[in-house]
Amino acid sequence: MAIDAIVLHTNDNVATAVQELKTGQQATIRLGRELNQLTLAENIPYGHKFSIRTISLGENILKYGEVIGRATVQIEAGRHAHVQNIESLRGRGDLGKEEQ
């Protein structure tokens, strides 16, 4: 079975598209040897991230098991997760360590 996206760590809440994906598509997502299905709520460009579950406003975005940003709005499962709904936490001088 061909895969459409990968998740690299069990704690991740986003997957990375390994090909261009379309709204309504039933995407096959691989985590290790496990395969899961998720219906996409919008188009996902190749190499971009999408939410694999609902991510709450202010919740950390996890990829590779690491925090890569924070949700600026609630992101429903199957939605594109990118600059329109994620803020970077890296290199920000306005945040103290406890906020990151």
Automatic annotation (TrEMBL):
<dbReference type="GO" id="GO:0008789">
    <property type="term" value="F:altronate dehydratase activity"/>
</dbReference>
<dbReference type="GO" id="GO:0019698">
    <property type="term" value="P:D-galacturonate catabolic process"/>
</dbReference>
<dbReference type="InterPro" id="IPR013974">
    <property type="entry name" value="SAF"/>
</dbReference>
<dbReference type="InterPro" id="IPR052172">
    <property type="entry name" value="UxaA_altronate/galactarate_dh"/>
</dbReference>
<keyword id="KW-0456">Lyase</keyword>
<dbReference type="Pfam" id="PF08666">
    <property type="entry name" value="SAF"/>
</dbReference>
<protein>
    <submittedName>
        <fullName>Altronate dehydratase</fullName>
        <ecNumber>4.2.1.7</ecNumber>
    </submittedName>
</protein>
<dbReference type="InterPro" id="IPR044144">
    <property type="entry name" value="SAF_UxaA/GarD"/>
</dbReference>
<feature type="domain" description="SAF">
    <location>
        <begin position="12"/>
        <end position="87"/>
    </location>
</feature>
